[in-house]
Amino acid sequence: MRRDYEIKKEIVDTAHMMNTKGLVGTYEGNISVKHKDRLFLTPSGHSKELLTEGQIIVTDMKGELLEGQLKPTSENPMHIKCYELRPDINAVVHCHAPYSTAYAQAGIKLETNVSPEFLLLFGDIPIIPYGTPGTSNIVKGIEEYIQDYDVFLLEKHGVLAVGETALEAFSKTMSLEMLAQTEVIRKIITGGKSNPLTEKECRILLEKGRSNHGVKS
């Protein structure tokens, strides 16, 4: 059985890694971990770089505060919605990773079929239509995708990833950010030209089986 301190440490460690990797600004991004009928969440308006276990908030699955002196992340409704739709997940990570968020703000899909690794990791990166931050509407429409995908672009907003653990959701986010960064560099080098895998190449890869890191099998 996991102890509360271990869960809080997992969130803090993930927040520090997100900061180190440049996935969050000083006050941006939020992380949650579900344990039984409780949610452990990052607080609103506090630096991920300086986050401590004592600052982690605990709520019930309706968002009612159970533990903590700080205000829970304003994106709590988004986290709860993901858990309601995917009972198999135990962690949600949201951030404004620069390259991925640029695509989200522009409403432009990422080309995962230009790389064997990213085709196997993600298959596709759905874009969820814009919804008001701080409400469950921020992921309105995610029902169409969340049973098959673990990583999403939130239109005009940022990135969302779900997983078994906070570390797993962070790792998926980091992989997505590297894909977006590489795509930007490729477009600069080629003047916007693409060199996608052929249908045959894609079929051979997918027949070998997709990874669980981005696409739910």
Quickly describe the structure.
This protein is of the alpha+beta class.
Structural description of this entry:
This protein is of the alpha+beta class and 217 residues long. It has a single domain (4-207), classed as L-fuculose-1-phosphate Aldolase (3-Layer(aba) Sandwich). Helices cover 35% and strands 16% of the residues. The protein contains six helices and eight strands, in the order αββββαβααβββαα. It has helices spanning 4-20, 76-85, 98-106, 116-122, 166-190, 199-207; strands spanning 30-35, 38-41, 57-60, 65-67, 91-95, 127-128, 151-154, 158-163. The chain has an eight-stranded mixed β-sheet with strand order 4-3-2-1-5-8-7-6, sandwiched between helices. A hairpin with a 3-residue loop joins β7 and β8 (158-163). α1 (4-20) runs parallel beside α5 and α3 (98-106) packs across α5.
What characteristics describe this protein?
217 residues, alpha+beta, L-fuculose-1-phosphate Aldolase, 8-stranded mixed sheet, 16% strand, disordered C terminus
Task: Give the full name of the CATH homologous superfamily.
Answer: Class II aldolase/adducin N-terminal domain
**What is the rounded distance between the termini?**
26 Å
Extract low-pLDDT stretches. 210-215
Please, how many domains? 1
Any idea of the CATH topology?
L-fuculose-1-phosphate Aldolase
Proportion in helices? 25-40%
What strand order characterises the main sheet? Answer: 4-3-2-1-5-8-7-6
The gyration radius over C-alpha positions equals: 17 Å
Secondary-structure element string = HEEEEHEHHEEEHH
Number of strands: 8
Described by strand count, sense and barrel closure, the largest sheet is: 8 strands, mixed
Please state roughly what percent of the residues sit in beta strands, choosing from under 5%, 5-15%, 15-25%, 25-35%, 35-45% or over 45%.
15-25%
